[in-house]
């Protein structure tokens, strides 16, 4: 910025900007300090379920995503190269029965028993982690 622009600014505005930046610095470490709970195979994963369209227009598929609190996956996956661990989990469906089990919960909270999971690694995956073997838990 030219020095003439900096000199013409209101000192109250500059002070307010510094306060906002400092407040952001103080809030960020508290999020990183949260300890993600370990998610073992067979544990229950709960959160909001959304359905997303994925793929090219002519071959679109529905992808199910569960948003939960940060969790730590079993080794070797662990935190999935994230500071707090994965929060979004892609629920992989392999049959029409699994799709039918998830459909009533779209837009609502659901609990699933996660039997097999890993970190997302492919470029097209929209979630932090993937749950490949699972079952819906009745609440």
Quick one: overall form? globular
Task: Tell me the structural class.
Answer: alpha/beta
Report the sheet with the most strands, covering strand number, pairing sense and barrel closure: 5 strands, mixed, barrel
What is the CA–CA distance across the termini? 58 Å
Q: What is Rg? A: 21 Å
**Helicity level:** 25-40%
Q: Total helix count? A: 3
Quaternary assembly:
single chain
Largest sheet strand order: 2-3-5-7-6
> For the residues shown, what is the average pLDDT?
78
Low-pLDDT runs: 24-33
Strand percentage lies at 25-35%
What does this protein structure show overall?
The protein contains 3 helices and 7 strands, in the order H-H-E-E-E-E-E-H-E-E. With 139 residues, the protein is an alpha/beta fold. The chain has 2 domains: 31 residues; 100 residues, no CATH class. A hairpin with a 6-residue loop joins strand 2 and strand 3. About 7% of the residues have low confidence.
Question: Features of this protein?
Answer:
139 residues, 2 domains, 5-stranded mixed beta barrel, 3 helices, 26% helix
Q: Summarize this, please?
A:
This protein has 139 residues and is α/β, with parallel strands linked by helices. Helix content is 26%, strand content 33%.
SSE order and pairing:
Blueprint: H1 3-8, H2 11-33, E1 37-38, E2 43-54, E3 61-67, E4 71-72, E5 88-91, H3 96-102, E6 109-119, E7 129-136
Parallel strand pairs: 1-4, 5-7
Antiparallel strand pairs: 2-3, 2-6, 3-5, 6-7
């Amino acid at each position: 910025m030219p020095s003439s622009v900096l000199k013409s600014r209101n000192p109250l505005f500059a002070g307010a900007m510094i306060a906002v930046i400092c407040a952001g610095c103080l809030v960020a470490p508290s999020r990183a300090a949260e300890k993600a709970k370990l998610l073992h195979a067979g544990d229950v994963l709960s959160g909001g379920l959304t359905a997303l369209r994925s793929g090219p227009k002519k071959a679109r598929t529905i992808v199910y995503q569960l948003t939960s609190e940060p969790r730590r996956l079993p080794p070797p996956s662990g935190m999935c190269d994230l500071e707090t661990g994965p929060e979004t989990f892609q629920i992989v469906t392999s049959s029409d029965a699994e799709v039918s089990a998830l459909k009533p919960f779209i837009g609502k909270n659901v609990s699933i028993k996660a039997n097999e999971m890993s970190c997302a690694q492919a470029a097209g995956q929209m979630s932090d982690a993937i749950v490949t073997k699972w079952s819906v838990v009745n609440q």
